[in-house]
Amino acid sequence: MLIIKPKKEFEVCIEAELTPELAMKSVEEVRKFKVYYGNRVVELGELFEVVKEGEDKKLVLDGDFGRVKWIGTRMVDGEIVVKGNVGANCGAFMRGGRIVVEGNADDWLGIEMAGGEIIVKGNARNLVGCAYYGNAVGMTGGKIVIEGNAGNYIGEKMNGGEIVIKGNAGDFVGTEMRAGVIEIHGSCGFVGGDMRGGEIRIKGNFDLLPTFRKTEKGWVGDVNVKGEGVIKTF
Amino acid sequence: MLWIKNGIVVDPKNKINAEKMDIFVKNGKIVAESDVKKEDCKIIDASGKLVVAGGVDMHAHIAGSKINTGRTMRPEEMRVVRNIAGKFRATLGRVLLTAPAIGYEYAKMGYTTSFEAAQPPIGALHTHEELDSIPMIDKGALPVFGNWHLVFKCIEEKNLEKLKALVAWAIERTKGFGVKVVNPGGVEAWMYGGNVKSLDDQVPGFNVTPREIITWLIRANEELGLPHSVHLHCNNLGVPGNYQTTIESIKLANGFRNPKRQVLHVTHVQFNAYAGSSWRDAASGAAEIAKVVNSMDNVTIDMGAAIFGHATAMTGDAPFQFSLHKLIGARWSNKDTEVETGAGIVPIGYLPSNPVHSLQWAIGLELGLLVDSNKVVLTTDYPNGGPFTEYPYVMAMLMSKKMREGELKKVHQYVQKTTTLPSIDTEKTLYEVIHMTRSLPAKVLGLENKGHLGVGADADIAIYNLNPLETDFSNEFEKVYKSFKTAEYTIKGGEIITKNGELVKEVFGKTFWVDARKKVDLEVIMPDIKEYFNYYSVQLGNYGVEERWLKNPSRLEVV
Amino acid sequence: MQDIICTFCGSVCDDGEYDLEKRKVKKFCKLGSSKFAEKERIKAPMIDGKEVSYEEAIEKAVEILVNAKKPLLYGWASTANEAIRVGVILAEKLGGVYDQCASVCHAPGTLAMIEEGLPGATLGSVKNRADVVIFWGSNPMEAHPRHGTRYSISAKGLLVKDRKQRKIIVVDVRPTKTAKIADMFVQIKPGYDYAIISALRAIISGNADVVPNEVGGVPKEKLVELAEIMKKAKYGAIFYGLGVTQSRGRDRNIENAIKLVQLLNRTTRWVIWPMRGHYNVVGAGEVPAWEVGYQYAIDFSRGYARFSPAEFSAVEVLLRKDCDAALIVASDPVAHFPKMAVKHLKQIPVIQIDPFPNMTTLIAKVVIPSAVYGIEAEGTVYRMDCVPLRVKKILETNYWTDEKILEEILKRVEKLRG
Amino acid sequence: MVVVELITGRTLDQGATVEEKLSDEYFNAVNYIELSEEDFKQLALKEGDRVKVVTDFGEVVVFAKKSELPKGIAFIPMGPYANAVIDPATDGTGMPQFKGIKARVERTEERVKTIKELLEAI
């Protein structure tokens, strides 16, 4: 297990593609790991304290990582626990393993995630599990659980996997979704625009688009794309 | 001054075929040995290396609103990093490249000239701004004429003097190089949601046909004596069965003659060489087209080869782009442009597992192999058929049947019975392929100082780590491909700009434009132009591009 | 002087007449006339409010920029392409962030274009061909006063001769000045553009039965009527404005509208285009697109361009405190950004290049006055439909152009950075 | 007090003074809120009265104007007064929400701040 702790408050955001692979390296190697501090490339050890405790493939990010981006990018296994907030693009293109965020998550959580699990104890911002700019497919597998609220544009172009939001979600949930499940325990705005498939379950209130047919299964649509997605309440 | 020593020179224009010789460069030009002081020359040892003229791309979409819209709508194309900012510019792009990337990548490959193949006249300044931002290479742009109301009017009136004056005026105003025609009449029909389907369809609202548009523009072009011929993107592009329209269009050159060059260049013919009646029974019409082209001595074509992988369809052929969007369901941009022209953009890709894509791939190669090497230029119609950076793939394929056999195994077997590719034994020689990428495109464009290494030519030179005397082109295709991907040296205007794929020096080349105003009386057309400007959204006085706005203009005056 | 080109709004009218003696422009609207009227200028370059030479101000600016870990280079909509190009290269060299005014204006349209493309036309096509024009969340009578007479509402075209042959429809949340002269006004509930567009798509594609009796405050009959007009148009144009891009749904509204236009093109011709605001906000996106691949929200901190409006748009950069210096060119973010974004701007060194004093001047450490394009300087700009125009120099000035100032900065940065 | 959906945007006057931001003309072009006749009446306002506009994101005092807006919709010209109360969140698009913000409007005797005062208070 590797514990990484910020040494100071950062002047600008940091980009650090920290994955559990780091826990397999020596502390010296980890300290030399390159991170981007604005336009300066610096060694991780300059900005963070690094402590190693045991050999398990686990990263503990101890402190506020709300301004550290790309944590857990492309990770395939192991675990990351973020004790505070986490910055944008956390868990991007993730294929396996587990990320637990004890605070809040910034935008673009789990971009095009294909496997693994992300749990956010606080709130998440926008674009959870979406397709990155210009790409055709969003999340395809794995599970994202937000215990608080989530922002707008959740699960756009989703083609598999599961997103659970225990609180409220914002607008435009599951737009152009093709497969997979989104479950919202609270309320949300527009749901399922141009949805082709998959299922969205909502406990609270939501804005239904005028392009869904009421059936026994729930609301089916979006008729504009001859979709067979299902929206239902629970 | 440069002294390129002991290279193996292939220079088809000057009938030099793999001869060991020295090349001398002074003031940006190739000069005779006696013109240089050898002790002042920087010597490049080219022993055992191939020395050829810099490549000339006569048809690519490298600048202007189309490619820039493509970049904007496809950020996923821009995520391949080619160069990090430092001494040189940062460059990006998978197939669609940024302007600096276009210049750098051409240069690395040994290409030193490229022409933007479709410039909307009202957007000419934008095209030139982008051309000015492309480093390393010489450039030019071809304004489009085939759907311009003013052109229709001159033809309706059967007034050749007016048409000539219009062409001369427009080429000057756009700082363009020649006459491009895209789906003549079809783009105007698109303004009503339609297209034209044959050479004799009437253009909506006008008493003209595609046949007349092409013929009259050839006539005007030839009477003006422009360096380049009419450059035609045929009707029915992308439609199964279109090879017949293409053949009919090619035959419109009959009766015209120019001692220096072709009178009609038909472009990216791969997209216009389909037999069959739908995509279900589509087949190649390349062999038939090749027969016709080979039988004529006044027509040239370029391949428009398709490369497997990503591409972006971008043409002035707006109705075709919409059909493509409907067919594949991809994003679609369109631009109806005043009363001049239109354009469209759709992302595409070519997959070897797809029968149609494999057919397109095969047809491009068939054209390159079946058409006389003196009549077919190597292009991919960048970025429509794929990246220009894969020209070496096409070069190697043309020279090696063995390579083609290997590639044929990887593609959809639909091509086995629908094309002649599997049965073609021809292997083009290096001499022919160098011609198809250098001296021929230069000749087709009418650029006398490009594409060869004779005294007086521009010192645009590529040196490849490939000894033609010791290379078995049939069998060593991988080496051939690799050698042509990265020039050992690229020399532009006498300066070394890249070495082994590394950038050495950033230079900015010339933009060629043609001035034929002395050949006409502009006053015969000005009243019509003034009247038509009631239907423009800009003032006549604000239309066009002044020479002093360009970074490095080079005027070719037609007298 | 004839054929003067206006450098105010995205309409870029190019038929002005300038009276050199009276120093007045004719033919232009209230906005254009105000542009050409004499007004208060920044008198001289300043550092901390103290007047200095151009060279001193530039030296100071360079010092701030090269020491920054992440400088934000923002503005660009009211300057010429030549200056923008130098600005983009400067951002690349500095490893900073390039963003432009569109990010608080029409950039959601770019996001929509990434999803669906942009089926559009030049304004000349609309003028000649459009028999139906819809202004959706746009109000040209106030924001682009001559758009209507020159290009859209009453423009005299080749096929559509005048106002009588053209149907004008306004869709908005309030009865704007444009709505008052329209043939049809569809008043919608704020935030329901997306749902209404979805409903129109359903009606047009034969699924009217699914559509409920009322959508977004509009009765179904009215939507059916609108859909019929759209289907019957020979050549229709939708001009959308900030009413769509700045409200709920933003880019998704436009994406949906583009899908509507795609659908309509299966049976007739329709185009859609944004009513871009500043005279060269289009250039501020097109130039970086060809130089570095993207239109806005571009980060160069890794030595090459990356695009992410969620991270690199000026407002997001400021809200996250993700910049430690700012160069503001031809813009006034202090007046036009939300309070929370301005707060960070007040805490970092700001360099301003602008002809006119504005709210950003009040917080700037270094102020560098510049010439006004279209009056004191020549340069290339792109009208809202991307048609390029070369704006003119009418009057002499001692002010440096944005291009020259930026070039001097770039030269010094290159020297320091190697 | 009335509750409204607040819209901000361009106006001709705001546009014509946008290059003179430190002038009285600009101040006058951006320092007001337009209210529907009903809302105006409900607040018992007369032209030139001042109101306080409060949202989840801030508050600002502006002059009140009657206009043809539908009841429940209010409009402030784009500029520093509007920006004191709009929603800065861009929802990942880069674009703050300038239009469609829930706001409370109430009559006030407080003064309308000058542009400089507004800036100092940030």
UniProtKB/TrEMBL annotation, chain C:
The UniProt keywords, alphabetically, are: Oxidoreductase
Q: Where does the Molybdopterin oxidoreductase domain start and stop, copy by copy?
A: 41-399
State whether keyword Oxidoreductase applies: yes
Q: What Gene Ontology terms describe what this protein does at the molecular function level?
A: formylmethanofuran dehydrogenase activity; NADH dehydrogenase activity
- Which InterPro entries would you find in this protein's record? Formylmethanofuran_DH_bsu (IPR016457), Mopterin_OxRdtase (IPR006656), Prok_molybdopt-oxidoreductase (IPR050123)
Question: Biological process (GO) annotations?
Answer: methanogenesis; respiratory electron transport chain
Q: Which domain of life is it from?
A: Archaea
- Look up the record and report any one GO term of the cellular component aspect: membrane
- Gene3D superfamilies noted in UniProt: 3.40.50.740, Dimethylsulfoxide Reductase, domain 2
What PANTHER family does the annotation carry? FORMATE DEHYDROGENASE H (PTHR43105:SF14), RESPIRATORY NITRATE REDUCTASE (PTHR43105)
Q: What is this protein called?
A: Formylmethanofuran dehydrogenase subunit B
UniProtKB/TrEMBL annotation, chain D:
Q: What InterPro entries is this protein classified in?
A: Asp_de-COase-like_dom_sf (IPR009010), Formylmethanofuran_DH_dsu (IPR012040), MoPterin_dinucl-bd_dom (IPR006657)
Q: Give this protein's Gene Ontology molecular function annotations.
A: molybdopterin cofactor binding; oxidoreductase activity
Q: The organism sits in which domain of life?
A: Archaea
Q: Where are the transmembrane segments?
A: none
Record's protein name: tRNA CCA-pyrophosphorylase
Per the database record, which ranges form the Molybdopterin dinucleotide-binding domain? 6-100
What Pfam families does this protein's entry cite?
Molydop_binding (PF01568)
